[in-house]
Amino acid sequence: MAGDWLKMRHDLADDPAVIRIATACRIDEDAVVGKLHRLWSWADRHTAGGHADGVGLDWVDRTARCQGFAAEMVRVGWLEETGQGLTFPRFDRHCSESAKVRALGKTRVKRFRNAARVTDALPEKRREEVPPPPHACAGEPPDPARWAILRDAWKSGPGVPWGPPDPPDEAVARLAEDGWLDDALQAIGRLRGCKYFQNPVGLPQFCGPRFVGRVLQGRYDAVNPDRKPGPRGQDERRPAAEAAAEWQRKAEDPEAARRRAEYLESKARKAKARGEDARSRGDGDFEAARAAVLASIQEATK
Fold first, then answer.
1. What is the DSSP letter of 235?
2. Residue 211 has pLDDT above 60, yes or no
3. Within its chain, how far is the Cα of 232 from the centroid?
């Protein structure tokens, strides 16, 4: 365990990514920050470098107690799906032991900066202290031409659109690697056939270490066996005639008719108790509306 505390920004609630998650999940920004704290604390205690093997998006939703929270974290680049589980990007930069040492040192310097004798107040630097690794973006910026090629190819693919004009940190690191761009262009073309992911892939996740190689190896072609079944896709839906036949069968089911009659009677009693019209709009025309819909479906399938 790296420690019993986390380094979080004062203005995290104002981050556009937090606002996007809050809007999509229909919760307030403070709730998003609290759920992020819960997830990052778990990762700090139970993962090595932010890699959580065997953990899926459904578990993140259950831990955050918010359906769709994990998918929104993926969209903003704060969570990535791998072939073996999940990864919290740039985890070492914020939550590793060296990151916490740097944060404490910065706070200590700031606290003693206004003291009368700063030299006496600051502890002696220990010789065995290892400087943190450079940021992924350190060094020369990426070749604008290479970034333009990747950006245009990404726009034409099925991934989450990338709006900022500058590349994400992960893309900067990958574009510096020889041959990666050629492989990335092939991988973008194969993303549509990757059934492993429940949500569209984001550019930071795509540019993560070994992600492109896994796509080209076909490791994401099959459906994730741990994924819960979701809504049917357009190609998997039943023919209209089959759906209409099932609907008609349920309509003629006496048990279903009895349940609906009980429901309407209960609804009428409640409306009468409130002094409202017991007949709600559309109740009397339900069978006529059903017959009209069935007729339109049968006509369309002739």
1. G
2. yes
3. 20
Domain ranges, ordered by start, for the chain: 1-127, 144-216, 239-300
Distance CA 167, CA 144 (A): 10
pLDDT of residue 270: 80
pLDDT at 126 over 80: no
Quickly list H helices, the chain. Answer: 16-25, 29-46, 57-64, 69-75, 91-95, 97-112, 118-121, 144-155, 169-175, 180-190, 203-206, 211-216, 240-251, 254-273, 286-300
Check pLDDT > 60 for residue 205. Answer: yes
Q: How large is the average pLDDT for residues 8-19?
A: 85
Phi/psi of residue 220, nearest 5 degrees: -110, 10
Contact (CB, 8 A) for 38 and 6? no
Q: Which residue has the higher pLDDT, 202 or 4?
A: 202
9-13, 59-63, 173-177, 285-289: least confidently modelled range: 285-289
What pTM did the predictor assign?
Answer: 0.39
Could you tell me if 167 and 137 are in contact, meaning their C-beta atoms sit under 8 angstroms apart? no
* CA 262 – CA 250 distance, rounded (Å): 16
Between strands 51-53 and 80-81, the pairing is unpaired
Q: Tell the burial category of 302 from Cβ atoms under 10 Å away from its Cβ (0-12, 13-18, 19+).
A: exposed
